[in-house]
Amino acid sequence: MITNEIKNIYKRNKICLQLLKNELFYLYKNGIGGENMNSKKALIFNIQKFSIHDGPGIRTIVFFKGCPLRCLWCSNPESQKNDIEITWDASKCISCKQCIKTCPQGAIYEKNGIKAINKNRCIICKRCTEICPKKAFDTEGEYKTIDEVMSEVLKDIDFYEESGGGVTLSGGEVLYQADFAIELLKELNKYGIHRAAETTGFTSHDIFKKFIENVDLLLFDMKHYDTQKHEQGTGVNNDLIIENMKAAVDRGKDIIARIPVIPNFNNSLRDAEKFSDLLNKIGIKKVNLLPFHQFGQKKYKLLQREYEMENVPQLHPEDLTDYKKVFINNGFDCKI
User: Fold this and answer.
1) For residues 16 and 135, is the Cβ–Cβ distance under 8 A?
2) How many CB atoms sit inside 10 A of residue 158's CB?
3) Cβ atoms within 10 Å of 51's Cβ, excluding its own
4) Per-residue pLDDT tens digits of the chain, which is 336 residues long
5) Are 50 and 64 in contact (CB under 8 A)?
6) How many Cβ atoms sit within 10 Å of the Cβ of residue 314?
7) Contacts made by residues 223-231, CB under 8 angstroms, sequence distance 24+
8) Cβ burial, residue 211 (10 Å; 0-12/13-18/19+)
9) Strand partners of residue 87
10) Which of 35, 48, 60, 208 is the most exposed place for a label (fewest CB within 10 A)?
11) Which of these, 283, 274, 290, lies nearest to 334 by C-alpha position?
């Protein structure tokens, strides 16, 4: 039987814990983190709150900019280059030409009513984003310190605790800025925050081993089982990726293989069988299937890049029913 005295003790402890959290958040917000915390910076292009698809519970996703792969279907093309980029939205432009007049490098010009940016001249001074009356110009990517990232993720620590959630590092490719990511993971661990990472695993063995020691859950992207096909679709082969997958399994890490199912690339039932064979050999038994979608199509236009998958129809969960059955029949815990 719970007495009133026990209830009061519980309330007092809960209040003290909340005060401690508030004090820690204040310290981070005002730049009073650990020693040399502000010395490291990473290029981040988004911090997304209240995600429920990238690990257990309610999560905050930290998106790192820069990726060594060039997947033809990439839905986050703004994540590929490890540089701040200028975007232009044609639907907002009123052709006032203030951007052209203002650019100190003469990097902006107009051809057939379309603004273009000479990337060789642009120095990312951001004058165009400031002068445009309709905000047609914007930037992708911002350098942040560990303090700045922590101040954002700690705002939702109560939600992580209540839901069994945490923080997921994603990209781009988080291993592209591995030193910063490892320090951030260590800092998250000080607060008992569950740490997940979505990764292609395309990095050196030494970096990968150091990284996974600080991760609770690996969401391991798997694009193709065949080396040649993998290179055709992503620009790199998968030898290093598979070796790192095996290393993570050997270290007993919690791993979910995430397979983007792409039309005319890896969406046949034979492909599902081959994926199953490889994953069984590696020792990974949990699989998430990600149906191909066109949510990122507009981003290519904002970045003024060609999108090779523009006219490819989307896939829906019901399209992968038989594909999913192949994994289940081979003993996998498979979800779409």
Assistant:
1) no
2) 13
3) 16
4) 455 554 444 444 544 454 454 444 434 444 444 445 556 899 999 999 999 999 999 999 999 999 999 999 999 999 999 999 999 999 999 999 999 999 999 999 998 888 989 989 999 999 999 999 999 999 999 999 999 999 999 999 999 999 999 999 999 999 999 999 999 999 999 999 999 999 999 999 999 999 999 999 999 999 999 999 999 999 999 999 999 999 999 999 999 999 999 999 999 999 999 999 999 999 999 999 999 999 999 999 999 999 999 999 999 999 999 999 999 999 999 999
5) no
6) 12
7) 223/69, 223/71, 223/259, 223/260, 223/266, 224/265, 224/266, 225/266, 225/271, 225/274, 225/275, 225/277, 225/278, 226/274, 229/265, 229/266
8) buried
9) 138
10) 35
11) 290
**Do residues 305 and 70 touch, judged by C-beta distance below 8 A?**
no
- Which amino acid type is present at position 132? C
- In angstroms, the CA 315 to CA 291 distance is 5
Q: What tokens appear for 294 in the block? A: 């066109």
Question: Do the beta carbons of residue 67 and residue 177 sit within 8 Å?
Answer: no
**Which residue in 335, 336, 309 sits closest to 74, CA to CA?**
309
At 203, the amino acid letter reads T
Spatial distance between the Cα atoms of 47 and 105, rounded to a whole number of angstroms: 31
Residue type, 291: P
- Cα atoms found within 13 Å of the Cα of residue 323, Cβ hemisphere only: 24
